[in-house]
Amino acid sequence: GQIARLVGVINDITEQRRAEETSRWRNDMLNRIAAMGRIGGFELYVDSEVLHWTDENYRIHGIAPGTPLTLKSTLPSYSPEARDLIMETFTRMVANREAERTIEGCYFTSDDRRIWLRITGRLELPDGVPYRITGLTQDVTEEHEAGERIEQLAHYDTLTGLPNRFLFRQRADDAIAAARRDGKPLALLFLDLDRFKFVNDTQGHEA
Fold it and tell me: pTM to 2 decimals?
C-alpha cells in the first residue's frame, strides 16, 4: 500500500501541436475571409432535402445558427421568382446530372430586409447517383443596389422619379415596332404641366 515509484511514457507531440496550431489559424482565416466577403457555405442532401449551413450563412440569412433547415422551409422567404428559379435549378441539376450551376435571387429576412444572394452549387455523384449539392452563398446586395441606382439615374428623372426622355424613347420605339408587327393602331397622349418650374423654384423640390 506504499507508493514506491511512478512509471510512465513521454511522447514528443511538438509536430501535433504545430499541426493543430496551423489548423486553427487556417480555420480562423477562412472564417474571416467568409465574413469579409459575406460568403457562407451549404450542403443540400438530394433525397431528404436537408440543409446544413455554416455560421456565416446563417448570419447572412438572419437566422439563428444551428436552426434545423430543409430546402422547403427556406423557400417561403425568397421572392416568387427566386423560389421558382431555385426549384427549377435543383430539379434540373439532379435530373440532368449537371455538375455546377450559379443563380441569383432575392431573399427577405425576418426583420424585412431585402437581400440579394448569389448561390453556386456543385452536384456530388458517388457511383453516378446524385447524393448532395454543396456550394457557396454570397451576399451581393450592395452590387445589386448599385446597379439599381445606376438604372434609376439613367432612366428616371431625379426630381419627380418619373421615366425620363431616354426611357420614353426606348418604350416608344418598342411600342411602334409592336404596332407595326401586329398591324394595330398606336396613340400618344401628351400632357403639359403649366408653371411647374415656378413651383420648383419658389417652393423647392419637396413641394
Answer: 0.62
Quickly list H helices, the chain: 14-37, 55-61, 71-74, 80-96, 141-155, 165-182, 196-203
Q: Per residue in 154-206, pLDDT tens?
A: 888 877 788 888 889 989 999 999 999 999 999 999 888 888 888 888 988 77
- 122 touches 41 (CB < 8 A): no
Q: Are 114 and 145 in contact (CB under 8 A)?
A: no
d(CA 47, CA 206): 56
Task: Please choose, from the candidates 62, 56, 58, 61, the residue with its C-alpha nearest in 3D space to the C-alpha of residue 39.
Answer: 56
Among 65, 63, 33, 26, CA closest to 138: 33
Does residue 125 sit in helix, strand or coil?
Answer: coil
Contact call for residues 62 and 109 (beta carbons, < 8 A): yes
